[in-house]
Amino acid sequence: MNAYAATGYGVALDTVASARDAEARLLSRLTNRLAQAAETAARDPARFMAAIHDNERFWTTAATDLASDGNRLPEGLRAALISLAGFVVGHSSKLRMGTVSVDALLEINRSTIRGLNGTEATS
After folding, report:
1. How many helices (H) and strands (E) does the chain have?
2. Which of 10, 37, 71, 74 is buried deepest, with most CB atoms within 10 A?
3. Which GO terms describe its biological process (predicted)?
């Protein structure tokens, strides 16, 4: 029975790790795309707008998941990430209007990737 339990826990941990890895990989791709599109925004604004949209979609999807009853993250972390998603949506709107820089979104994404990978520096 204990062997089965250990196997079950291992599978559950692998699933959680796999989900975190998948989220980190997706967010990394979106971040790279957003950074590259920002560099050429003057020449290809449609590409930049699409990258902003895709990044925003990631965060709104994450917020929806975080707000669901089935989400098992600690409540405080969920609230903080939902708040961060709200910031991303608002900043994205300002970015589309050209009134802010993309830098804040890139830093949020990179910090989140580090957190998902378990490499966030602690001070």
Report:
1. 4, 0
2. 37
3. bacterial-type flagellum organization
